[in-house]
Amino acid sequence: MEFGMLPLRRLALTICATVMLLLASCGGTEPEGTSSAGDDAAAQSETGSLDDNGGVVTDDDTGGTDPGETTDQADVEGDASGTDDAGTDDAGTDEETDGSDTQGSCTGAPGCACASNLDCDNSVCLDTPEGKRCAFTCIDTCTKGYTCEKLGTSDVVFVCMPNFLTLCSPCKTTKDCSPEGTDSLCLDYGDAGSFCGGPCKVDADCPDGGYTCDEVLNPETKTLTKQCKLAKVEGKQPVCGCSVWAQAASMKTGCKITNGFGTCAGERQCEAGAMGACKAATPAEESCNGLDDDCNGVTDILPATKVCSKSAWLPVGSQKACVANADCTQPGESCNPGKGLCQTLIGTCTGVASCSGGAEVCSSVQTPKIEACNGEDDDCDGNADEDFAWTDPLAGGKVAVGGACGLGPCSGGTVACETLLSAVCTTEKNKKSDACNGLDDDCDGVTDDGSCEDGSACTTDVCDGKAKSCSNDSAVGCDDKNPCTGDACIPKDGSCSHVALTATCDDGDACTVGDACVADDKAIATCAPGAKAKDCDDANVCTDNSCDAKLGCVVLPNAVTMDCYDGGAATKGVGLCVGGVKACNNGKLDSACVGQVVPNAVELCDSKDDTCDGVTDEGCKAAEVAGTFSASGGRLSPDGKGTRVHAVLGHGSVGGGTAAAASGKTVKAGFIVWLQSLFE
Question: What is the pLDDT of residue 678?
């Protein structure tokens, strides 16, 4: 900003200070500095902060001050450096500058840009983080970040010197950070590089903007000291920027780029007001190209983890054209890149890759071979002799080479290679032919399962383990299926004999009885049928009986019917009595006689022979009157032979009976009885 007109009070102070300086130069005594608190209570000291580049940023319009603005002496210097354009402070405040607003319109006054001492009214052009600026003179105090120091060998001129001129500037050595002999060190910020610190005792000594006062090791004196340094934020180390001074000084620092392959060193410097990128190679996996790709100081030395492989195929498989393994679909085959065909893969062996003549070669690698029983992993699948095993004769399971094996006397063995193509149990040499002795001589897990000899060609000769002898089970079949021969095996040679028999037999016909063996003139006996046929009658009228040569007696139900009568033979067909019928159902005769009429126990006066004795209406009186009555009057007398009538007589006739009008019954009674009944 431009310096305005200062108050007359400050102009007076400036004149006084000038006189004092002149007196001091003539051998007078240096005036004792006083703080602003003693001269002007309205002038307060403010603290500046560092910008991102490590430069001092004043508070300007928010009440900040320039390095010298801590006492009224700063006002004096301000008055001496310019003129009061309006005779009063702008907006009623002391408006100073950090230098950025003084370039152009600001010339010669403290805080203005300068190139040499000739450009400044006080003939002092200092290096500051914002670049070269005309110095602020002082008595004993300055704003935060600046110290009031004697200029050169003069005992008269004191100016505000920056405490942290190089703070956070890129550096390579401590000398880069102390151009004027300060105690600033070049501090390590990791891969980002090294940046200047600043001497301090407590955090409050450091500028604002994220700085802390850390204990560090002085690389030259090897002693611990304290320096201002950017504090880590959330575990990450911030990167310093470039101040105007650092940019003008072309400050540089070493840096690194690190990744999983290694760390490459380079350099970075201030560029256009900002820290430039690290100009280092990016570490890469080492390859055979004559370069140090991973920046480990050696060229074309591949890491031990760099593996290579060699595969081999059998000339069998689908032989399908291919580019990748995915093109091959048959089990066990893959793409043979040398032939571009899908073939059966023998295996893939791995080795350590190395460089030779600028090309990668696979060293210490074997060629895969078909697995042999030799204790080696021929096909490089991680297993040795896996295609060979001993078969357990009892369980049928496979025991791999090196496994425990053996049964019975052969137990306690180990499966081992017998030839390149076979494996054996090492204790099988102990086995022998199985004898009938209760032992597993042949090591197959079964006791006495071998053959034995009992002297007969007709037996199976199997060992009985408990008896420790051969069994006599038949081994030769001599049955000729002829019931009229006696069959036997001859022990000497195991041949069969067949002797004719004279005994009963079965000719295979179920309908013959008394079958017997009959020998012909050649003494060959056969079974002859008996002369008597088998009787199949079961005495059941409801079944039909027959005989089948294969099945024997066959019984089938019929539908026969039979006459029946349950009333006594003398009464059948007499009077009302007639016979009925019984039918066969499911082989059984029905118990009920259907349709029969048997004698009634009492003769009814109905002109019929109810009792079937040949006499009709025996015991009934001659009818004198017969009439027809209504249904409402009439009932049988107690003896059943007369009727008491209580109804009105309808019509009738003497002599034969007629049907009653309503009841349907013919009633006969003596006249007297009838007449009597009328009066009852």
Answer: 52
User: Which residue reads 């002092």 in tokens?
Assistant: 124
| Residue reference for tokens 């009986």 | 545
* Number of alpha carbons in the 13 Å side-chain half-sphere of residue 159: 21
- Looking at residue 151, its pLDDT comes to 81
Q: Which residues pair with 588 in a beta bridge?
A: 585
* Plot region of 612 (φ>0 → left; ψ -120 to 50 → alpha; else → beta): left
Q: Count of CB atoms within 10 A of residue 338's CB?
A: 9
Name residue 249's amino acid: A
Low-confidence ranges of the chain (pLDDT < 50): 1-66, 68-103, 623-674, 677, 680
| Buried-exposed string 33-52: b where 16+ CB fall within 10 A, e elsewhere | eeebeebeeebebbebbbbb
What is the Cα–Cα distance from 146 to 202, expressed in whole angstroms? Answer: 16
Instruction: Say if residues 93 and 87 touch (Cβ distance below 8 Å).
Output: no
End-to-end CA distance of the chain: 165
C-alpha to C-alpha distance for 2 and 83, rounded to whole angstroms: 10
Q: Which of 253, 246, 184 is nearest to 216 (CA)?
A: 184
For residue 118, is it left (φ>0), alpha (ψ between -120 and 50) or beta? alpha
Q: What is the pTM of this model?
A: 0.42
Q: Name the CA dihedral angle for 497, 502, 504, 510, rounded to a multiple of 10 degrees.
A: 70
Both tokens of 323, joined, read 């580019």
> What pLDDT was estimated at residue 189?
92
Q: 427 CB contacts (<8 Å, ≥6 apart)? A: 405, 406, 410, 411, 412, 413, 443
User: 352-383 in b/e burial notation, b at 16+ Cβ within 10 A?
Assistant: bbbbeeeeeeeeebeebeebbbeeebbbbeee
Query: Kind of pairing, strands 580-585 and 643-644?
Result: unpaired
Buried b / exposed e across 130-142, counting CB within 10 Å, b at 16+? bbbbbbbbbbebb
Geometric angle at alpha carbon 113, from 107 and 114, rounded to 5° = 85
CA neighbours within 13 Å on the CB side: how many for 404? 3
The H-assigned helical ranges of 373-496 are none
Lookup: tokens for 269: 């410097």
Strand 495-500 with 485-490, pairing: antiparallel
Report CA 261 to chain centroid distance, whole Å.
Answer: 34
pLDDT tens digits, 628-670: 343 334 444 444 444 444 333 333 333 333 333 333 344 444 4
* Alpha-carbon torsion, ordered 88, 93, 96, 101, to 10 deg: -90
Contact 537, 546 (CB under 8 A): no
Structure tokens belonging to residue 343:
């073939």
- Residue 486 near residue 501 (C-beta atoms within 8 A): yes
Residue 211 per-residue DSSP state:
E
Beta strands in 375-449 (DSSP E): 389-391, 398-400, 404-405, 413-419, 422-425
Q: What confidence score (pLDDT) does residue 9 get? A: 31
The sign of the torsion formed by the CA atoms of 28, 34, 36, 39 equals negative
- In Å, what is the CA distance from 1 to each residue of 46, 92, 103, 123, 380? 18, 15, 8, 21, 81
Strands lying side by side in the sheet with 625-629: 649-653, 625-629, 667-669
Q: How far apart are CA 59 and CA 64, in angstroms?
A: 4
C-beta neighbour count of 59 within 10 angstroms: 15
Which is nearest to 144 in space by CA: 83, 192, 92, 211? Answer: 211
